[in-house]
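Go through this chain for my students:
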Amino acid sequence: MASAHPSDPTGPTGKLCTWINTIRLDSIPSPVLERAKFLILDGLACALVGAHLPWSEIATKTVMEMEGTGHCTVIGWDKKLHPLSAALLNSTFLQGFELDDYHQDAPLHSNSIILPALLAVAEQTRSQNKDKTKEAAFTGAEFVLATIVGYEVGPRVGMALYGLDMLTRGWHSGAVFGPSASAAAVSKLLHLPSNEIEDALGMACTQAGGLMSAQFESMVKRMQHGFAARNGLFAALLAKGGYKGIKRVYEREYGGFLSCFGQGSGKEPEYVVDEVAKGLGSFWQCERIVVKPYSSLAFTHATVDCVRGLQEKFPEHFKDRGNLRKIRKITVEQAGPTFKHGGWKAERPLEVIGAQMNCAYVAATQFVDGQVLPAQFATNKLDRNEIWELVGKIECVENPAFNEEGKSYRQRMIVEFLDARERVEMTVNAPRGVDPALTNEEVLEKWRGLTADCIEMKRRDKIERMVMGIEGLEDIGLLANLLLGETKSPIE
């Protein structure tokens, strides 16, 4: 009989697998559990809002043409698909409008990877149990514990590759770190033994990848975390079925996950394998997950806050669009990862995805509209002259001093006017959401605001109550049922 232990219990992979297998809900600190519930609520809001965006509809209709009906909810639609496709689409919705969470040190969008995979496997497993009894269902307590496991694993894998460095090198970091998070979460929900968790992680890691050039005009940027959700789910299901994966996948020197993705980092060492299992059960990465207040690339948020700070401190300069025409030049100083990810020069016209990923465009939007929310990225607003006049005056530059540890989100905005005597500036060390983090009350406000025109209030309130009391929910399928049914697009 095969051992239920990982191949090397003392190695980083083995330690991680053992922790995933043994962690229990009563070991989770109350603040971490409470924050996880609000993070889940935020993720569901993003998915409901994103279900009928134009690119979401194209993806859904295309996938539905390829396969028949299944047992897994497609959020915001009156449709069910097979688990892998449902996970892919639901993740695509959740990532659909740059409203979802991110980890501030190891950038990945955890909810878009974890929640779709867990919902899919929960519904699929229930459908396969012939007696359909309550015992066949996964409880809310099991679901939230598995979610927290995913929250903890993804960032640790990312930190082993120096987190933000992956973006600097052109990898879509969440699509690289994400399959591990999905596989870990699903493995926990399925109660896999440690050896099968190791198989799942090994198969998840060999499916990792994603190119950041998807951010300029491609719809596929919205889907790349979906690949991670689907591939981690697939890996865990294969492991459950007895399919063997790569052993010691994180520490293998030849063809290992870290040794391959660490190549070209320019760091010494190229990767830090001990980060994979560092601080498990004592330091909670869940508490480093950030909720977004703006509908744009995370690295643009400090840009937005620079503009907001200027608007508040110097209202006489920015109170109307006539004043904006007196601006001669705007310089935005940024750290390397921010500059490479969001500081590129925008050219007219832009697709929605490019607009949301560009610091200059987002800054101009805040200057003109006073906010950066889904409405600002409606197709009929992307080519406004007043926006592009400002974009042409904005230059993003890398400030090497901001590359020091702890300063990666720092930005300085310098505004020069036609009158050479006038010049104002604003520095933001970290954006709202990072410092200060959105409180649970603010996350709840975001949930209610985003879903107000998306679903009916009665349905919204039921979902909210269910998530807030998720540890007492007898069947997570009840939550999935509330996610089934048409929603409205925020940019119609």
